[in-house]
């Protein structure tokens, strides 16, 4: 099952589909990091490191603890986003938004906003009431984007991580309360 944003098709990947699409996902991650995206890696990102990352996500998708969505333009993956579900009893109402990325040549087409809306839809279907995420402060982060989607800024931790160029940076922590009754049916 998938949704569409214009001619872009959004769909979740199974563990086997994630393995089959690993080459495109590696290219997407490398392209985003190497163009300055703060995704937890330093530029230039080696394909072997990106491949190791995606291989590590496969068992999480298989176990149901992570959702990976992709945005396709035809057969080409041009974006991706993830939700990590909490397994502890006292936290099953929340999930973390991870690795929201769009091919630099495909930005400003509404793909990231579409991925976020689809993540929220999947979260509501699982009765998730709270989403949270962090991004970097500054040019490698996406504060304005998340604020435009209704995410509330909570604060940040100085020297939290290195940006893609290796400079120490503060993170920006966000959350959004979801109303399950807002779920489109």
Describe what you observe in this structure:
The protein is 31% helix and 31% strand. The longest helix has 17 residues, at 47-63. The strands form two sheets. The chain has an eight-stranded mixed beta sheet, with helices on both faces. Strands 8-9 form a two-stranded antiparallel sheet. By secondary structure, it is α+β, with helices and mostly antiparallel strands. A hairpin with a 2-residue loop joins strand 1 and strand 2.
Q: How many angstroms separate the termini?
A: 14 Å
Are there runs of 5+ residues with pLDDT below 50, and where? Answer: none
Cα shape: globular
Query: How confident is the prediction overall: mean pLDDT?
Result: 94
Q: Structural class given helices, strands, pairing?
A: alpha+beta
From the alpha-carbon coordinates, what is the Rg to the nearest angstrom?
16 Å
Total DSSP helices: 5
Main β-sheet description = 8 strands, mixed
Helix content: 25-40%
Q: In percent, how much strand structure appears in the residues? A: 25-35%
What order do the SSEs take from the amino end to the carboxyl end, as H and E? Answer: EEHHHEEEHEHEEEE
How is the topology of this model organized?
Layout: E1 3-5, E2 8-12, H1 15-20, H2 22-34, H3 47-63, E3 66-73, E4 76-85, E5 94-102, H4 111-125, E6 130-136, H5 143-148, E7 152-155, E8 161-162, E9 168-169, E10 171-177
Helix pairs in contact: 2-3
Structural descriptors:
single chain; 185 residues; alpha+beta; eight-stranded mixed sheet; two-stranded antiparallel sheet; 5 helices; globular
């Amino acid at each position: 099952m998938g949704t569409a944003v214009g001619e872009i098709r959004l769909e979740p990947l199974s563990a086997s589909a994630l393995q089959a699409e690993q080459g495109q996902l590696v290219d997407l991650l490398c392209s985003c990091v190497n163009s300055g995206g703060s995704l937890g890696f330093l530029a230039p990102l080696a394909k072997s490191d990106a491949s190791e990352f995606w291989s590590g996500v496969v068992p999480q998708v298989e176990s149901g603890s992570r959702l990976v969505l992709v945005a396709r333009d035809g057969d080409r993956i041009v974006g991706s986003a993830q939700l990590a579900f909490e397994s502890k009893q006292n936290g099953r109402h929340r999930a973390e938004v991870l690795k929201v990325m769009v091919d630099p040549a495909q930005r400003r087409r509404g793909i990231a906003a579409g991925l976020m809306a689809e993540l929220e839809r999947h979260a509501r279907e699982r009765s998730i009431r709270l989403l949270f995420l962090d991004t970097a402060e500054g040019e490698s982060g996406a504060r304005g984007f998340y604020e435009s989607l209704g995410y509330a800024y909570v604060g940040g931790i100085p020297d939290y991580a290195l940006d893609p160029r290796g400079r120490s940076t503060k993170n920006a922590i966000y959350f959004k309360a979801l109303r399950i009754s807002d779920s489109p049916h």
